[in-house]
Amino acid sequence: MKRIAIYPGTFDPITYGHLDIIKRGLTIFDSITVAIALDTPKQTLFSVEERLSLIQKVVRRMKNVEVKTFSGLLVQFAKRQHACAILRGLREVSDFEYEFQMALMNRRLSKRFETVFLMPNEKYTFLNSSIIRQVAQLGGDTSDFVPPEVTKALQYKFQSEK
Length: 162
Ligand code: COA
Known about the structure:
There is one protein chain. It is built from six helices and five strands; from the N terminus they run E-H-E-H-E-H-E-H-E-H-H. By secondary structure, the protein is α/β, with parallel strands linked by helices. A five-stranded parallel β-sheet has the order 3-2-1-4-5, with helices on both faces. The longest helix has 17 residues, at 93-109. The N and C termini lie far apart (51 Å). The mean pLDDT is 96.
């Protein structure tokens, strides 16, 4: 039986921190499905189609990684995908409370999955997508934090806004 983990999130945009978690996840699971949540209260910079295409581009050379979107409950999506776990990154202590709440709620919703937390390389612990968007909007260099395809997409997005 293949051990599939779902790595859910908004990915607006995907960063090296997210990729670090995916790579670490692949050492434990047979395959990882990156799952972009459609039902999010977050106002996103990139459309779902743009985020899907960006993630597909940046994981194209990684084996056993799929990218999908989902709506509704994460646990129901995970069940449809025959996954055994939900993968999340824990960057710092401040992530813990929110992640703990989500993991326990998901467990209440379905006992079938465990949430597995992995820590990214410490050089990515301060990263999040909002900070990347802000740096890019103000003309800063994002190339240390996101793959080249994402840097390009950010530059294009903010240039076309001007
Ligand atoms: N490296 C860099 N940044 C990271 C990161 C990492 N390893 N891990 C998380 N982040 C950042 C994200 O970029 C994001 O930044 P932003 O808020 O500045 O945009 C932030 O940390 C957290 O976002 P993310 O990991 O995308 O989670 P989320 O809170 O947006 O998504 C879902 C939460 C989608 C997983 C959750 O709402 C969900 O499962 N929804 C489906 C509905 C459901 O089942 N609800 C009940 C679940 S309790």
